[in-house]
Amino acid sequence: MMKTSRFFSAMTFVLLLVIWQGAAAQIDKKPYTEWSEKEAEKLLEKSGWAQTQIFTDNSGTSSAGSGRSVNSSQTRAAGVNQVNFHIRFLSAKPVRQAISRIMEIRQKGEVSDQMAAQLRSFANSDFPDYVIVTLTVDGTESGGQTREATALLNKLTTVDLKNNTYLLIKDQRVFLQEYQAPRRDGLGARLIFPRQVDGKPIIAAESDEVRFVSELASTFKLNMRYKVKEMIYQGKLEY
Known about the structure:
By secondary structure, this protein is of the alpha+beta class. The protein has 2 domains: 1-30; 31-237, no CATH class. The chain is 33% helix and 30% strand. The protein is built from 6 helices and 14 strands. It has helices spanning 2-29, 37-45, 93-106, 113-124, 144-155, 158-161, and strands at residues 50-57, 67-70, 81-89, 130-139, 165-169, 172-175, 178-180, 189-194, 196-197, 200-201, 209-215, 221-227, 232-233, 236-237. The strands form 4 sheets. Strands 2-1-3-4-8-7 form a 6-stranded antiparallel sheet. α2 (37-45) packs across α3 (93-106). The longest helix has 28 residues, at 2-29. Mean pLDDT is 84; it is low at 1-23, 61-68 and 71-76.
């Protein structure tokens, strides 16, 4: 029975990998200006550069502030609300291209020349000095822990986070350089890290994975893994 279970677990992993590689190939096959809204949204929700960490909100049934992190693929239990932290590498070009494409589509052809130029610049700019990770939050209900999480992102500072927020690559911790609270642009809170340490890029193509770790509060401890091999876009490592 155990061998059968392991076999199906392995097959599930292989199938998910094939599905992801197929989706990545589709994105790579055409310019981002031809992506559908669905393709762009998928890249921002679950891809090599974007993941979602989910917390169950039990504030309605137990003491306020109690929460549990769950896997983003788990189905929500009836009557249990969720708080979703969307964690994205904004400095990765495909993330910015997906955001730009969605904005363009939702404007329904009414993008001015000036706005179009700004979107192109945003989508295609390079980030030679910094890695920027963004955090946005939403939930199945607007109250409870969703409100708490939103307020938290607005009040946190660099000092609050600099010692417990880092990117982990192998055994190296690259600590937060600067935290910026959310602005009105909808991109969320920005967490800025150096792109190089000791003159070397913090992530290399031969790296296995990158972990984003941040203890925003005792209730919200973020720990998300990104596979480096899934961060290749148009033949280049993007982060």
